[in-house]
Amino acid sequence: MGGGHPYLAVLAAVSTLLCPPRGLNGSSEEETRTTQFNGSAAVFRSFRANFRRVFAADGEEFDRRHLHFQDATKRHAYLNSFSTVPQSAEYGVNQFSDLSQDEFRELYLGASAGCGSCWAFSVVGALQSVRAIGGGRLQQLSVQQVLDCSFRNNGCSGGSAFQALSWLKQTRVKLVPESEYPYKAKTGMCHFFPRSHDGVSVRNFTSHDFSGQEEAMMSHLVERGPLAVIVDAVSWQDYLGGIIQHHCSSKWANHAVLVVGYNAVGDIPYWIVQNSWGASWGNEGYVYIKIGGNLCGIADSVAAVFL
Questions:
Q1: Using CB atoms within 10 A of its CB, is residue 265 exposed (0-12), middle (13-18) or buried (19+)?
Q2: CB 202 within 8 A of CB 145
Q3: Which of the residues 140, 195, 208, 275 could staple to 178 if both were Cys, CB 3.0 to 4.6 A apart?
Q4: Strand 243-244 versus strand 286-290 pairing type
Q5: Is 255 part of the annotated catalytic residue set?
Q6: Alpha carbon distance 141, 121 (integer Å)
Q7: 246 an active-site residue?
Q8: What is the pLDDT of residue 8?
Q9: Does the annotation count 275 as an active-site position?
Q10: CA nearest neighbour of 306 among 224, 221, 198, 226
Q11: Residue 3, pLDDT score
């Protein structure tokens, strides 16, 4: 396997790279992964307690969520039937298991509910990581500033990482620390800062299509640092951990994430991808995707940042 270093992991600051879902709270990863679930009402009640669901146990909402939960457990069995080799992805019950597939797409891959801000998280994650790699201080920068001020995008109603980078390059806006412009999960009025204010600005960025050229993308990651990418994350609703090798298409680009590294040492080389759904999801907030085959469309739309 070419592409430079056999193992690379350039991890961005993660404590602010979370998009907390509205009304959904996580439970311990250990509980989720070690418990064998089925679709029974008793087990569903246990799921409700673990994830702090607040709807009544004898109403229409309970029945609807229970039905989605039963559908999810059947889906998990199908997805796991492909996991026949070591390190394969594992699918099972997590914080999304009482959502229908349509609800999951709407809440986490669209912008009609909650705050569709992951395009901004991926851009800010790239900036703060590249800055640290270049010798600067690893500092959490303001995602809210990008949400409020990037006039090329639509705030919580959705946006493009590439449009945000274009805005940053054109205006030379300096991103300020998260502490000065905290995340509110809703679009607000843009707060302007004087040119003399300390911050991080974008000198330039590049965008590439590396489909069919993932070894070149590996080299690009080594040379440029973490990469903002757009993926098809529909199948990630049920992901618990391991390396995704199947059923992750490149048909629809619907979610922005950050490729922070890769591992080419073992039998299955994989991308290390930082997601924005919280540390209780996946591999403590990360997803591993097999290198080769453009799984999830990971190589279709790739951006690197220059400061």
A1: exposed
A2: no
A3: 140
A4: parallel
A5: yes
A6: 10
A7: no
A8: 62
A9: yes
A10: 224
A11: 44
* Calpha distance 294→307 (Å, rounded): 28
Cα atoms found within 13 Å of the Cα of residue 284, Cβ hemisphere only: 4
Distance CA 274, CA 17 (A): 9
pTM as predicted:
0.83
Active-site position among 115, 118, 149, 296: 118
The dihedrals phi and psi of 294, each to the nearest 5 degrees, come to 55, 45
Residue position matching structure tokens 């995704």: 244
Tokens standing for 195?
A: 């040119």
Which residue of the set 66, 220, 255, 263 is catalytic?
Answer: 255
- Cα dihedral 3, 6, 242, 111 sign: negative
Query: If you search the block for the tokens 């307690």, which residue do you land on?
Result: 49
Distance CA 155, CA 146 (A): 8
Please give the radius of gyration of the chain, using alpha carbons only, rounded to the nearest integer: 20
Contact 230, 258 (CB under 8 A): no
Single-letter residue type at 39 = G
What confidence score (pLDDT) does residue 6 get?
A: 54
| CA pair distance 97, 80, nearest whole angstrom | 15
* DSSP SS3 for 257: strand
Q: Are 125 and 132 within 8 A, CB to CB?
A: no
Q: Which of 94, 263, 275, 294 is catalytic?
A: 275
**CA dihedral for 235, 241, 243, 246, sign (positive or negative):** negative
One-letter amino acid of 74: K
Tell me the average confidence (pLDDT) per consecutive run of 10 residues in the chain, 307 residues long: 50 37 38 46 83 79 90 93 88 94 87 74 94 90 96 88 94 95 94 91 95 96 95 95 92 92 94 93 96 96 95
